[in-house]
Amino acid sequence: MSRTVTVGIDGSRESLAAANWAAEEALRRGIPLKLLHVWSKDEERRTRWVDPATARGWGERTLRITERRLRRRHSGLSVVTAWVPGYPVDALCAAGDASELLVLGSRGLGGLAGFLAGSVSLAVLARLQRPAVLVRAHNVPAPGKPRSAGDVVLGLDVYSPSDEMIEFAFTAAERYGCRLHVLHSWQMPAVYGPDMAGVLPTLLADIGQERQQALDDALAPWTEKYPAVPVFRQCNQGRAAQDLAEASRDARLVVVGRRNRRARIGTHIGAVTHGVLHHCVAPVAVVPHD
């Protein structure tokens, strides 16, 4: 793995927003930014009959323009560029797995708040072995203005907490100098007996207390490792994707996980992560884990 932040560039407004976000992230990490343009003649009708030399000229021009913009906006940024022929998913996965972080642009949902993660983005996230961040165009501040303040929000499953996710979130909060907001949502078990009316309040209180204790236990070693990071714990009854989308309104970054799956068939992005990708308004980091 090379210590770079890699961002996919295609000249779109979304990819330029991702490039700006990635440039700031690379500066914070003190590592180079890699701009990657992937060309596939079979992906779009307009490029199907374009010869490779012409396509390379278009791609390298896009990379040069983007590099100049980023250097003007981010002083001291180290930038490398790459034009790669091939299928976008394969090329982005290879580049992402060789990088410290992969950043992709994502379209908005029109009049609704949230992401529209395209087929390429979803396919890359399903296969990638390294963390990736999806960025919307509105997530990037105007030139001269710092990235908006806010918490790093971590969605955590307290009964199978991922060390990779937790470390990524704590490290990000430490890097940004902000608070870490850890959110665990739980739902009432479907069946607890024929007559719930009399015991429901007590049962809800007991479950809430049990989940809160599990959350505290999961975070205990990490708060010791990162004592300078303030942590806000939120444990409530609700739906995880919906609660994370709500928390993203004031967030700097939302961190979710994706369990690595070896099977070739079936879903590779869980329901919560899929929902977060489509409805969060903040940049979303997806951290793969076993």
TrEMBL record:
Q: Which family does it belong to?
A: Belongs to the universal stress protein A family.
Under the heading SUPFAM superfamilies, the entry gives:
Adenine nucleotide alpha hydrolases-like
**Ranges for the UspA domain?**
1-136, 152-288
The record's section on PANTHER family has:
STRESS RESPONSE PROTEIN NHAX (PTHR46268), UNIVERSAL STRESS PROTEIN UP12 (PTHR46268:SF6)
Its name, as the record gives it, is Universal stress protein
- Please report the organism this UniProt entry assigns to the protein: Streptomyces lunaelactis
Tree of life domain: Bacteria
- Gene3D superfamilies recorded: HUPs (3.40.50.620)
